[in-house]
């Protein structure tokens, strides 16, 4: 693990919540408007609230299972011990797939953003981005904590400045699509679930957070704080977008995979100045960076646990290499869009962020009685809810790929 909780000053809950929020917000902000366009405002908000509740519970269930193990333990150790080697191998593949593909998406997008600002080659920009910011993860969890607090604060300020122009122009007839008297919305929320799930996919960081605080209850509060912050960001973002850009005009944005530049161009009539557009672009850049270091931290700790690397300079350098170099190489060879990447990550994340934590909590209570130490709330009903949500999300993702889910005709 990156840090042992031996510092004289106890880590703050704000820092931990910022790590969780920063991991979530980067993935969700860029994929949600286009993936939620069919479901529109009310059903998209319902899908997000349900997902936030389930994903918060599943993170707590993972904490419950981890309480029986050393603070350096991560997904690999606890899954292998409780669910056996076969389940563990499959779970490990899903964990690394999600972490790797999200890092891949963030590296690719950061390169394009830096290219747009500086004119430098996007591939060279991606290499520089990884070289600089992956060192924060290599250094320590505390370094990620500090950077996350700064980035979440910056995101909040830039979000308020950027969205305030949109918020002041919200039309309720557009927000609730009143021109479409007989519109169908609920069926399209099904296809949104994989992206919504990934938008709350902070689970790489649960073991890191537990090690950082040295206990489960502070980590529990930090998780709830982080997912709550992310939910507020998401709903404010969707309301601001859906209140300005009519549902019928979302076709080009969806066709381009939710590209931020296309979205901003479509909103050009509602954005008063280049300053506001630049502020929203800066927010997007900060969201990508914050998610990169947050997901990078969780994947880094997972790989260190998986391979048994030491927590010294040499061991951390080995962990850094296997964490960041593969997604960087993949980004340089075959970049693609955010929504596609996040959709696949959502299907895989449903396995280890919902199904596996639910099974771990059930096994923990079977083996140990579930009474001593931290226990996730909700009893058996919560375990069943999290398990079913994970299974349904995986099914909906592959049904969407097969064309078996309804697709909204936009524009």
Describe this protein's structure.
This protein is mainly alpha-helical and 411 residues long. It has a single domain (13-401), classed as Amino acid/polyamine transporter I. The protein contains 16 helices and no strands. Helix 8 packs across helix 16 (379-401). Residues 1-8 have low confidence and may be disordered.
Features:
Amino acid/polyamine transporter I, globular, mainly alpha, 411 residues, 76% helix, disordered N terminus
Brief summary:
The chain has 411 residues and is mostly helical.
- Superfamily at the CATH H level? Amino acid/polyamine transporter I
Number of folding domains? 1
Strand tally, please?
Answer: 0
Biggest sheet descriptor: none
Q: What is the second-level CATH architecture?
A: Up-down Bundle
State the secondary-structure class: mainly alpha
How much strand content do the residues show? under 5%
Give the fraction of residues assigned to helices. Answer: over 70%
N- to C-terminal distance: 49 Å
Computed over alpha carbons, the radius of gyration is: 20 Å
Function: Involved in transporting aromatic amino acids across the cytoplasmic membrane.
Organism: Marinobacter vinifirmus
GO molecular function: aromatic amino acid transmembrane transporter activity
Subcellular location: Cell inner membrane
Topology of this protein?
Layout: H1 13-35, H2 40-66, H3 75-83, H4 85-118, H5 122-139, H6 141-167, H7 172-175, H8 186-199, H9 206-213, H10 216-242, H11 251-255, H12 260-266, H13 274-307, H14 313-333, H15 338-368, H16 379-401
Helix pairs in contact: 1-6, 1-8, 1-10, 1-13, 2-8, 2-10, 2-15, 2-16, 3-4, 3-15, 4-5, 4-13, 4-14, 4-15, 5-13, 5-14, 6-10, 6-13, 8-15, 8-16, 9-10, 13-14, 15-16
